[in-house]
Amino acid sequence: MFVNPPLSEELFQHIWAFRLFRQDHLTTVTGEPVEILHPGVLNHHGGPDFSAARIRIGTALWIGQVELHLRTSDWFRHGHQHNPQYGRIILHVVFIHDMPGKGIPGVPCLELQERISKLLLQRYEALRSLAPFVPCAAQAAQVPPLTWISWKDRLLAERWERKISGLQSWLLATHGNWEEVCYWAIAQSYGIPVNAAPFLQLAQSLPYRTLIRHRHQHIQLEAFLFGQAGMLEADHTDAYALQLQDIFTHLRHKYRLQPMAAHQWNWLRMRPAAFPTVRLATLAALLGKTTHIFSQLLEAKDMTALEQLFFVQPSAYWRTHYRFGQPVAQAQCPGRQAVHTILINTVLPLLFFYGQQKQQKYYQEKALHLLQQLPPEKNNITHQWALLGVKLENALESQALLQLKQYYCNEKKCLYCAIGAKIIRGA
Question: 73 vs 13, 93, 99, 125, 189, CA distance in Å?
Fold first, then answer.
């Protein structure tokens, strides 16, 4: 016996949790009346599917666990009869009761096959089977704005929770050194998207306090960064690269540095202005600008102040080069959009995290306010959302939609998405 349209256990749990079935005159398979006062709380770990359910069966009120299966026989197929975790089930809910006259001894069984709309199952299957940019491409723009607004707020919270988890581990690793954490985070953001990992590795191998000691000698900062990145190991003929080589030889010995392997850096399919060489030169310029980047971002009063802090130009050599020994008439330097990328992905989440740690809502509210002042990010994903008619007013919304695409749409978790769930229910 097959379910048609197809029904997954995941969808069946969703239907039960939100009571998306006809509830009038419910009875167990043996004819006892059933009233669902509360379906329970979904269990994401081992054991029965729902806990703390409140269900009236006959004249008795039961509070406890509920187990769901597509078929009654799945109970035995899954071996629940031998598992003491399932010994206190108050109700066994199934889509199809395929064991007439048997069932689970002592456990009432409720069959829902005839009470679930086939249209709901068809909508879900349609979303799962489609393969455009996102499963709900044809319907997303029709979902009410209020649903989108609340869902975007939740998505941003999820995205920043992920970022903050990493920042928290760095804060522990640096024994509470906020300047060091800030330096690591900014360095990582200079490598977004494909060189984030090597940029972070580079920063973690070059202590911030060491670099700051040499901030007044810009050529030494570049020697540190390019040398530790492994980009001065090759046989260079370029005069500037050779000069950096000589300086780094001394610095490497003095600070006992072990350079990274040059092959860790990615160069393919990117604009020259995004080359790791250009980003490293820009990072050197930022490090030479101030000794306390984190303190200054805390003191920044508005977006203009933050932009001025992070808007720097690399040294003269990198205004006519993208790579060592390959001169160009005029190199394109990272501009305002690059600064906004750093603010969106690093500075504002870090500011929010600081407010959390210090229990100062001012910094949390400031981070969110500044994020809403920034324009939405421009990339292929945000472009595709815009083509679907989903509006992006600011960076908060673009961050939310990046989170939605990566962690929901790509994995087809439509049931866990406010937009997908709205479409499936037809509400």
Answer: 17, 12, 7, 24, 53
- Mean of pLDDT values over 174-180: 97
Tokens coding 425? 């229910």
Cross-strand pairs, 34: 57
Residue 71 zone, left/alpha/beta (φ > 0; ψ -120 to 50; rest) = beta
d(CA 309, CA 289): 9
When pLDDT is cut at 50, 70 and 90, the band that residue 427 belongs to is low
d(CA 109, CA 93): 6
Q: Give residue 293's identity as a one-letter amino acid code.
A: I
d(CA 22, CA 8): 19
* Residue keyed to tokens 């540190």: 224
The model's pLDDT over 217-254, given as tens digits with 9 standing for 90+, comes to 999 999 999 999 999 987 889 999 999 999 999 999 99
What percentage of the chain has pLDDT greater than the value 90? 71
Say if CB 388 and CB 137 are below 8 A apart.
Answer: yes
342-369 as b/e, with b when 16 or more CB fall inside 10 Å? bbbbbbbbbbbbbbbeeeeeebbebbbe
pLDDT at residue 117 is higher than 80: yes
Question: What does the DSSP 8-state code read for residue 265?
Answer: S
Give the Cα separation of 397 and 163 in Å (integer). 17
CA torsion 356-358-359-365 (nearest 10°) is: -60
Q: Tell me the one-letter amino acid at 27.
A: T
Residue 412's region, left for phi above 0, alpha for psi from -120 to 50, else beta, is left
Residue 2 has pLDDT above 50, yes or no: no
Dihedral of CA 104/107/108/111: which sign? Answer: negative
Confidence of residue 124 (pLDDT cuts 50, 70, 90): confident
* Residue 160 to residue 165: CA distance in whole angstroms: 8
Nearest-angstrom CA–CA distance, 333 and 312:
9
Render pLDDT for 333-343 as a digit per residue (tens, 0 to 9): 888 899 999 99
CA dist 179 to 164, 308, 374, 408, Å? 16, 19, 24, 34
pTM of the predicted structure, to 2 decimals: 0.74
Distance of CA 66 to the CA centre of its chain: 32
Instruction: Check pLDDT > 70 for residue 129.
Output: no
Q: Is the Cβ–Cβ distance between 392 and 386 less than 8 Å?
A: yes
pLDDT at 10 over 50: yes
Query: Cα dihedral sign for 44, 47, 52, 58?
Result: positive
Residue 204 phi/psi, 5° resolution?
Answer: -75, -15
SS3 69: strand
